[in-house]
Specification:
Blueprint (H helix, E strand, L loop, with lengths): L2 E6 L1 H7 L3 E5 L3 H11 L3 H6 L3 E4 L2 E2 L15 E5 L6
Parallel strand pairs: 1-5
Antiparallel strand pairs: 1-2, 3-4, 3-5
Length: 84
């Protein structure tokens, strides 16, 4: 199973209480399930409002089960940002 880094930003970072952490998952859905298991509180609620980048590419409306992860890849967890 690919090893990936999940990076948290803004409210997600505050809820996770870490900036990034490693996971093993072959899809975005698998990685997010592991995140929810590790952080069952506030981060689970924050994730419902987030968008995601996988290796710099926006996931958009694609089903998370269809988004494959690669060894050494990165998942960016981006809550809505004010302003900008």
């Amino acid at each position: 199973m690919p090893k990936v880094t999940v990076r948290y930003w803004a409210a997600a970072k505050a809820a996770a209480q870490v900036a990034e952490e490693p996971y093993e998952a072959d899809t975005l859905a698998g990685a997010l399930a592991a995140v929810r298991e590790r952080h069952p509180g506030e981060l689970t609620r924050v994730l419902q409002r987030c968008s995601f980048l996988v290796d710099g590419d926006p996931v958009g409306t694609r089903a998370h089960e269809t988004v494959r992860l690669a060894e050494g890849g990165t998942v960016e967890v981006l809550p809505p940002f004010a302003g900008g």
